[in-house]
Amino acid sequence: MIKLSKSFFKLLIFSLTIGVELVCFDVKGQESIKRCMEIAAAGGHNIILIGPPGAGKTMLAKRLPSILPPMTLREALETTKIHSVAGKMKNVGLLNQRPFRSPHHTASSVSLVGGGSFPQPGEISLAHNGVLFLDELPEFKREVLEVMRQPLEDREVTISRAKFTITYPSSFMLVASMNPSPGGYFNDPDAPVTTSPHEMQRYMSKISGPLLDRIDIHIEVTPVPFEKLSDTRNAESSVEIRKRVTAAREIQTQRFEEFENVHYNAQMNVKQIRKYCALDDASLQLLKTAMERLNLSARAYDRILKVARTIADLEASENVASHHISEAIQYRSLDRDGWLG
After folding, report:
1. What is the model's pLDDT at position 2?
2. pLDDT value of position 10
3. pLDDT at residue 87, as a whole number
4. Cβ pair 48, 177 in contact under 8 A
5. Nearest CA among 39, 25, 62, 64 for reference residue 218
6. Which stretch of DSSP H or E encloses residue 219?
7. How far apart are CA 41 and CA 59, in angstroms?
8. What's the 3-state SS for 94-163?
9. 167 pairs with which residues across the strands?
10. Torsion (CA) 185, 191, 192, 193 in degrees, nearest 10
11. What's the longest Cα–Cα distance across the chain?
12. Residues 238, 69: contact at Cβ < 8 Å?
């Protein structure tokens, strides 16, 4: 048996951190959207950004890895194994950055979930412990998107062939972006392209309810005004945001240490939600009123509780309070009446 020294492990841990991109989170304006991205990163929540062209959706998504917590040794080994099987390790001993995969909307279902005569990992497995970014979500073929439903729920994908069956892990953060209409400017009277409500509904219906059911945060992204774009002051850096995200993840790690396959809030099942997201009477009444007045769907209930739990963790709050619930309610745009019928 080979014994490894402490200095070896120190060097290994150091190698996991030096390669992490700590770029400035230099998005002008969009403070509310950056707040959403911080919450999503802290709880591992899937998120969809809805807004017109040029609002900054893609830029925000590409900067998400810079605020995610560093990979643990276990995560680094898992991720390295998957990329090694796929033949994507070129003179790299151990991956030290969380994957960021962004397949084109023409991608096939096999390229997304994996397959072939000798099944190889697909994009969802290559994004394991990282981010899968689907830009212009409605432009993907519906059958391609539907194959993600089971992996999003089970966080693994099983590929069966005549001679053998293989299972690849696929625990990733789904980040999607989309325009609110085919022209991109729905409900904007000054827009260069107009779209009728019927055309908008048909466009939005390309995304199924069950898929949206697996996305915790829906947020509308609006164009940045000139005053914000011309502001020369530096925005808050990714380093500072990442510190808060890492602290919140550490709270969740301690909370779920007795559960084998649950490491952060987005992975909670119904039983765990009821245990760790218990509400007082005031918070429960607030949630009930919001669901009735905003016509929120029933599927939004558990998602709101998960996100509220993450917001509380960012504040290091033991209990979920009413202001955590009220903030989480804002992040369910697509569940409101008028979006999807």
Report:
1. 42
2. 46
3. 85
4. yes
5. 39
6. strand 217-220
7. 16
8. CCCCCCEECCCCCCCHHHHHEECCCCEECHHHHCCCCEEEECCHHHCCHHHHHCCHHHHHHCEEEEECCC
9. 158
10. 40
11. 72
12. no
User: Burial code of 121-133, b = ≥16 C-beta within 10 A, e = fewer?
Assistant: bbbbbbbbbbbbb
DSSP state string for 202-214:
HHHTTS-HHHHTT
Q: What is the pLDDT of residues 216-226, one digit of tens each?
A: 999 888 877 66
SS3 readout for 237-290: CHHHHHHHHHHHHHHHHHHCCCCCCCCCHHHCCHHHHHHHCCCCHHHHHHHHHH
Give the pLDDT confidence score for residue 202 in this predicted structure: 76
Report whether 182 contacts 195 (CB < 8 A).
yes
Of 178, 84, 98, 96, which Cα lies nearest the Cα of 132?
98
Buried b (16+ CB within 10 A) or exposed e, 18-40: eebeeeebebbbbeebbbbbbbb
Tokens 């995200």 found at: 245
What is the architecture of the domain spanning 20-229?
3-Layer(aba) Sandwich (3.40)
- Residue 23 confidence (pLDDT): 46
* β-pairing verdict for 120-121 and 114-115: antiparallel
Which two three-digit tokens encode residue 203? 């466009």
Residues of the chain with CATH 3.40.50.300: 20-229
Q: Which residues of the chain have pLDDT under 70?
A: 1-29, 183-195, 225-234, 335-341
Pairing type for strands 165-169 and 156-160 reads antiparallel
All residues at 6 or more sequence positions from 310 whose CB lies less than 8 Å from its CB, including other chains:
39, 42, 43, 45, 248, 265
Sequence-ordered list of residues with C-beta below 8 angstroms from that of 308, at least 6 positions apart, any chain: 277, 320, 324, 325, 327, 328
